[in-house]
Design a protein that fits this description.
It is a single chain. The protein is α/β, with parallel strands linked by helices. It has one domain (4-240): Aldolase class I (TIM Barrel), CATH 3.20.20. The protein is 49% helix and 17% strand. The chain has helices spanning 10-19, 26-35, 54-63, 76-85, 112-124, 137-145, 156-160, 163-182, 198-202, 214-223, 225-240, and strands at 4-8, 40-44, 68-72, 89-92, 128-133, 150-154, 186-190, 207-212. Helix 2 crosses helix 11 and helix 10 (214-223) packs across helix 11 (225-240). The protein is globular. The structure holds pyridoxine-5'-phosphate (PXP). The site of pyridoxine-5'-phosphate has 19 residues, from strand 8 and helix 10.
Length: 241
């Protein structure tokens, strides 16, 4: 099974918004990421529009030659935007205004009643729905009962830990991936992945897609985005054997 790379370009918009102008342009970043081997582009339209804006989503939906994955909170406003632009995929994430980045996964089990109609509407519009969840059997079971076709397992804890604790978290990710795949759910992973920690994640056989942003945009400052994406894709392919 091949392993796709989705490049998250949110932080190109973060740099742009620091000055309030039009540069650097996230759409140009998306095009360079594709040249470097990105199989898809991911963008998170946050409620507070701190990086990606509505106009960015409209432009990306218009010009991209690869699938667009819209990360969104489970709100009516975001649902309406997704239905208007019809990205290839929508990844539902938890969102808190005060957080710096997406902390923890969705409580797919506790939020069943909010998520069920949203998953149904997005799927009805032929948007491939993914739920961003913690790697636990309880959350995978909730995704199964919501009939989500895809889960994205949160690798943030794995990225933050070291030694035995990291090995244990890798085991949780691997077990959750196997359980999801056994139930017919496509498995993605992402958050906090770098050149140094991507290989064990890429080697998990059930994983079909990794979504990586912050590290690649940072690395692009030094080597250019196209080169950074190409190197990450190379590491993923090598880990896959
Ligand atoms: N996947 C999801 C669902 C996310 O919310 C994020 C962060 O926006 C990522 C992947 C990428 O994480 P990072 O920027 O740490 O690579």
């Amino acid at each position: 099974m091949t392993l796709r790379l989705g490049v998250n370009i949110d932080h190109v918009a973060t740099v742009r918004n620091a000055r309030g102008g039009a540069l650097p342009d996230p759409v140009r970043a998306a095009e360079l990421a594709v040249r470097g081997g990105a199989d898809g582009i991911t963008a998170h339209l946050r409620e507070d529009r701190r990086h990606i804006t509505d106009v960015d989503i409209a432009r990306l939906a218009d010009v991209l030659s690869v699938p667009l994955n819209l990360e969104m909170a489970a709100t009516d406003e975001m649902l309406a935007i997704a239905l208007r632009h019809r990205p290839h995929a929508a990844c539902i994430v938890p969102e808190k205004r005060e957080e710096r980045t997406t902390e923890g996964g969705l409580d797919a089990a506790g939020q069943h009643n909010v998520l069920a109609p949203m998953v149904r509407e997005l799927a009805g519009a032929r948007i491939r729905v993914s739920l961003f969840i913690e790697p636990s059997a309880e959350q995978v079971a909730a995704a199964v009962s919501l009939r989500a076709p895809v889960v994205e397992l949160h690798t943030g804890r794995y990225a933050d830990l070291s030694g035995e604790e990291r090995v244990e978290e890798l085991r949780r990710l691997s077990d959750a991936a196997a359980l999801a795949a056994k139930n017919g759910i496509e498995v993605h992973m992402g958050h906090g992945l770098t050149y140094d920690n991507v290989a064990p994640i890429a080697a998990i056989p059930q994983v079909r897609e990794l979504n990586i942003g912050h590290f690649l945009i940072g690395e692009a400052i030094f080597t250019g985005l196209e080169d950074a994406v190409r190197r990450m894709k190379g590491l993923m392919e090598a880990a896959r054997g």
